[in-house]
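Sample entry was shown:
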Amino acid sequence: MQSQKGSILILSLIFSTIFLLVLGAILSLIQVRRIATQREAASIQAMTIAEAGIDYYRWHLAHMPKEFAQDTGIHDFKDPFGGTIGRFELQVTPPQSGSTIVTIRSTGWTLTYPNLKRIVEIQYGIPSLTKFAFLTNNNVWFGQGEEVKGPLHSNGGVRMDGEADSLVTSALETYICGLEHDCNNEVKPGVWGTGEIQELWKFPEPMVDFATITLDLGAMETEAIDNGFFLGPSGVFGYRLTFLSNGKFTVEKVTALHPRVYGYNGTQWVYESNDYKTVQSIPGMSNLTIPADGLLYFQDRIWVEGTVNGRATVVAARTQQQGGNANILIQNNITYAPNTNSALALIAQKDVLVPLRSPDTMEIDGALLAQSGHVFRYYYPPSFYPQYALRDKIETYGTIITNTVWTWSWVNDANGPVVSGYEITETTYDTKLLFAPPPFFPSTGEYERISWDERLLNQ
């Protein structure tokens, strides 16, 4: 009997030992799980704190959109009772020259797990006016054979008989459609016509304030004098600016024009020449490097052509004492060099014009902005100028912004063929210019989120 009792005691010790080992393992597992849960909670909380840092700096941008040095560094994060439970650190990369993109990096952590940090990095930008493929302050008509690839907006009415693959918007609920758009001063909806995908037609939509666009020339002139490229009046007919595929440019004086011709400018008949005939080199003005700020400013009218390799904004503007109303003329193609991140803006104080002697098939890469006038090709009577009046096709890749009436093509009636200008027109939106426009190109609206990235700094 004593032997049996000893056996029972040994068995009890064995089972007790096993129980204690299992219990210890369970407690250890619970502790590990508890620590893991605490770390996971701290990681989530650190993420929340980092996001709070982003929201804090968004408030800063809303109130001080051009001040990027203030409110950075380390900030306390408090609970609803005022106790500090964590911190976030803000690092801000301001926009590069000519851009609106600001990068905000917020690193958050809790006081209980200070080495467990989460990072949120976000980019914000103010959209450029290059967010439109076409923007006008006037009524506009896209006829058959005319195509727009990208957003289109008018502060006036839109007659859309052509093709559009994106939003077509007007600031007006209704407008008076006149004879120039083959109407008899009729009341029409803000957007109307025979074009397809009418689900994309929206009106009324907010107006784009063209008055604010015209306020930038003085600042651009100062910037060009201080840091960019600046030329005063030519003393002759203007300048020819030629972009070179090696990333440089050349400027020459236009010394003679082709004979004057009759053309209708949308308002009246004019007798003038907008085609250069001869140019003269200027000492020291060949194979120049595009300045770091990308700004080229001319106090005269200019002809622009060539292959762009780089980022540049070209401005033609005269002072009031010089007569104002400087134009940019595009007599030959302007293209981007292949496989480059090139961007070009042409900003004319008055008009951006394609003259009579333009190529039969024409390509223009860039953002075209006519501040007080229009982006335009005159009506040239085909009976007067049979060799040049009627052209085949024009393609623009970028943005057209025109204050007054725009057209590349002229017809006798809505269903008739093109009788002057380009028979086929194609306007394509350059998506990369939305938040990375050419230098100093006007922007509109408030900061919008471009990208979001979050990650764990330490385990």
